[in-house]
Amino acid sequence: MRNFDLAPLYRATVGFDQIADMMDRVLSNDTPSQSYPPYNIEKTGEQAWRISLAVAGFAEADLTVELRQNALIVTGKKTEDKEPRVYLHRGIANRAFERRFQLADHVRALSATHQDGMLHIDLIREVPEALKPRRIQIASGSPDVAAGPNALIDAETSVN
User: Fold this and answer.
1) Boundaries of domain holding 26
2) Does the global pTM surpass 0.70?
3) Same domain, 12 and 28
4) What are the phi and psi torsion angles at 73 (to 5°)?
5) Residue 64 β-bridge partners
6) Among 117, 104, 95, which Cα is nearest to 35's?
7) Taking Cα atoms as reference points, which of 34, 41, 42 lies closest to residue 99?
8) How confident is the model at residue 82 (pLDDT cuts 50, 70, 90)?
9) Which of 32, 39, 40, 105 is deepest in the core (most CB within 10 A)?
């Protein structure tokens, strides 16, 4: 696999450190790829997604879904059987797991449902009103520079 040098990204941008770190983590060969439990990520709307994990054999009480600093962390820990079992063949993996998904800013989990051995987590992006684009009305004439920047702010708030 190729190694990418992200130094030019650091030199030319400000505030994109998280993206560069995430790319560095994804592209590095140091982390072993996880394959358990298998999962799907599907787009359910323009700003909505669903993560589905195959968690056969796990009860709802054995699963935890947590949102921590733009990371969705799903853990599963099977409770011990009260009676010991003797297996002739054990092909179903009921081992403990932790699966992490990095989420973009303003993405939050709406709900989590457990049905037919599948854990479904619905996500949505909700951009705050303050960060949404807004249109600035263009006024004719020149602004009163002597009045200072507060005059422009007062004029803008009276337009909205």
Assistant:
1) 1-33
2) no
3) yes
4) -115, 120
5) 75
6) 95
7) 34
8) confident
9) 39
